[in-house]
Amino acid sequence: MRNRQSSKGFSRRTLLAAATAGVAAAGLSAAPVQAAADDRDKALKRVISGMSLEEKVGQLFVMRVYGHSATAPDQADIDANLKEIGVRTAAELIDKYKLGGIIYFAWAHNVRDPHQIADLSNGIQQAGLRQPSRIPLLIATDQEHGIVCRVGKPATLFPGAMALGAGGSHSDARKAGQIAGAELRSVGIVQDYAPDADVNVNPANPVIGVRSFGADPQAVAAMVAAQVKGYQSAGIASTAKHFPGHGDTATDSHTGLPVITHTREQWEQLDKPSFEAAIAAGIDSIMTAHIVVPALDPAEDPATLSRPILTGILREQLGYDGVVVTDSLGMEGVRTKYGDERVPVLALKAGVDQLLNPPTLAVSWNAVLNAVRSGELTEERLDESILRILRLKAKLGLFKEPYVTHRGVDRTVGTAAHLAAADRIAERTTTLLVNKEGLLPLSPRTHKNVLVLGANPASPSLSDGPPTTVIGAALTELGFAATVLPTGTAPSQAVVAQAVAAAQGKDAVVIGTYNVGAGSAQQSLVNAVAATGVPVVTLSMRNPYDVAQLASSDAHLAAYSWIDVELRAAVRVLAGEAEPRGKLPVPVQKAGDPTQVLYPIGYGLTY
């Protein structure tokens, strides 16, 4: 088959012909998703028995690759692939390593626009079906929404987990997952590394935070279950992460190895419920955490490499027999104790099925291959994981129809109905925490001239501009006269002085804050502007904990993210176009005294 992509995408005839060939070659013409489980497994085991050892090893890996096209990426991406992986293109990567999956990243230039993503996905599937065993790939990404999104506009972007936790609606969580899943599936992404099932009980957590639904284990469990059902109802594989629970860490596992000192009883009460709920909801895959939990594994191996945790607890205690995928093997948390050659082998021995994004694929792939040849791993052990992976591919219908079309993209991605649903859901998440003397809602009649200050932690594909610009535009649309002056996350004294001068004569000042700590320059900015006597409204654009450091603000809203849909919703609440309905899903401790709770879980003001 020629690997040809046009501006209109693959023709329907070409797609169906290739799909049929892949099904027939795999011996799955009886449509395994409709067959009884035992018949399905027999068919899949026949496929496995015909695979070479190299194909089996490849099937366990999910790898990054640079480029917008499977066969014709830009030269800079070819150069990056050659440097990091030793191949030129995604198609060459699959040809060489017989991969089971690919992960998309924005920084790898995989996700320019929906039609391009669909064509890339089709090219990747073509490359997979060209291999001797003709097995389609699991194409995955991290699309949690909120602060973690790989596929940006014109895709519909939803509030993230903590915002949904503030909204408290299981229906909204499920709806967001269903729409997000449908849009991903339309561009060929079939495995989403979401939702985050961690219970964020540590305000200083540098890597989870608003990616979690909250700090109450039972509330988080219910939201996780709702999102799993939403995603998977759209025909994609959902992934609960990060087992056994990453919510109480003060170290980022990307850069170090966190240690969680919970007792076994604390783990049972705090971290276990959300993963149990995900399993009960039929979760397709679970991602491991690069964390040490001595109470669960006295050997103090990272959970990703821990047989007591992954086999003893996840497989045997919780009864999970779905796909287990590692967090990225390029993260320092999993590389601190063992070298890159040992990590993939130990992960498989622990009970992992998919090995995600190793730093050097050749090293990891050959390590697994050599471990089988030496007898440290058996082919039977590989076959166990491959069967789980192929079951998932069959469930997703990839053997029957691995391809997508531009027409499907156009009728699914970023539709007016989807965007309207995101706006409605976002409005129900905005949380009003402070409203001195009933300052809010503001009205253009009484507070016409508004100055917008603050941080701009924007991701270009996720917004129409920097957050302060988005806030200013939203205010202007509602009849205010907004002036925008970005001040950043660490405004200098000169910038603070400029902001104070700009506040003169204004009717109100709105300041977007981002992770404000004690003694932060953002805190100094808010204090200085408040000292002018102009009413100050602060809007936390990530962690709701900011409010504890901003005693001088007259009103405070928590938006939980800087993406447009959440900022626009917060502005509508600020202006009284929508009611503040969100309730804190985490407690906010008093500044300087974490033993005292300033605002408890469930706190939230209304008009």
TrEMBL record:
<protein>
    <submittedName>
        <fullName>Glycoside hydrolase family 3 protein</fullName>
    </submittedName>
</protein>
<keyword id="KW-0378">Hydrolase</keyword>
